Input
Amino acid sequence: MKTMFAAFAFTIAVSFGAYFVLSEMGFSSAEVQSAPSVRLD
Amino acid sequence: MNLQVVGACLIALLTFAVTPAYSQDEGQRASTGGAQTLEDILARQKGLKVDESFRRDNLGNPENAQPISGNLGSLGGVSNSDIYRGIRYSETDVKVSNNGPAAEILVQDGGMEWLLTRQGGIQAYAGYGIGGIILALVIFYFARGRMTIDGGPSGQTIERFKAFERFGHWCLAGSFIMLACTGLLLLFGRSVIIPIFGHEANSAIATFSIWVHNNIAWVFMAALVAIFVMWVAHNIPNKLDLEWFAKGGGIVGHGHPSAKKFNGGQKLIFWMTIVLGASVSMSGLSLLFPFELPMFAKTFGIINSMTGMGLPTELLPHEEMQLAHLWHAIVAITMIIAIIAHIYIGSVGMEGAFDAMGNGQVDLEWARQHHDLWVEEEEAKGAPIRQAGDLR
Ligand code: HEM
Output
């Protein structure tokens, strides 16, 4: 059972990791869909 | 002779079934001066196939424009109607300030078909499919009961899966269950959650669901590759599997057909997971990076060349997305239905099964009854046999 919970914790950690990596790389839909003339924030 | 008659009838019926129902021929459009008629509009609303070429190809021709001195003199351009028809059928060169992919497509009329399929067929498939398998399992549980170890557990255990195998399985299972739940919340948001809990609640649930769905998908894809690499060697089908199926797997009836590490039914689950899992991942990636990874036109081309079917090989970017979205849902629901049965057998359905993925140690008697040949191989290799509860 320990392995199972470790896998679940790992799954959650990777999900947050994926979110931050993709945001850093500019993959948010707002950034993909807008022209350079748009100020997003 | 009879066979020929039946054949001819079948062909006639098939022709009937596949011939698109055109609303009307050109002659009748004379009354509107060649423009579409009420029948055309009604036919389109009913989802019948209308031959649109009379509009699609009617984009005006500056060469034929009246000279500036003529009664309807013009500067030689095309009319507004011509331009709008061009936009509708993506024949006009459009420039937009939005730099998003596919932004220059202003009108795409496959959206209704996509919406109706999603709200009609796909929701029904999900509802009846998932409800049906749960009902079937409940009935099975009460009719057949839990599959127990004949003669009870031996009290001795043997290692079935190593820690890294269990880790891989639970990454796959944990991510899949979250993907299934959030996917279904998104699918049923408009038709179930909004009427019961309101727009505000659905907005919060959908925002949470899509975040989880988009980000946890990476774990699913990685775990799928890991599971494939770890277990493919044990899942090559062979003759033993046919015998296993012939004996109903011991699920129907009470026999214990021989099996190695994985039996025929498990191999089926394995390959279903790998093939459908890969397909759901590909269509998912296509959705995650809109318009960047179109794959249907190309796939249709391959299918056409193999089968001679006439699937469309030129698709607008939005049509690609709509197909990816529908396909993603269909494959995912099929997987969910199969996996619910898997979860049943791996937990409440069979005594001693969960331990294989719980602590990795299974009862020796359970192993002998369900995977006799595997136990023989393991014992020949000198695999340690432990006392139950001893987890050193
Ligand atoms: C709570 C949910 C789950 C439970 C309790 C569970 C349980 C198990 C168990 C006990 C085994 C080993 C069977 C044996 O000893 O031979 C197994 C194997 C396996 N599981 Fe799961 N599982 C779950 C969810 C999933 C999910 C969501 C997937 C895939 C998306 C999955 C894919 C597999 C595959 C491919 C195998 C190997 C083939 C097989 O045994 O059928 N499992 N699972």
Observations:
- Residues 9 and 23 of chain A are 22 Å apart (CA to CA).
- The pocket of protoporphyrin IX containing FE is lined by residues B 160, 169, 172-173, 176-177, 227, 262, 266, 269-270, 273, 339, 342-343, 346-347, 353-354, 356-357 (CB under 6 Å).
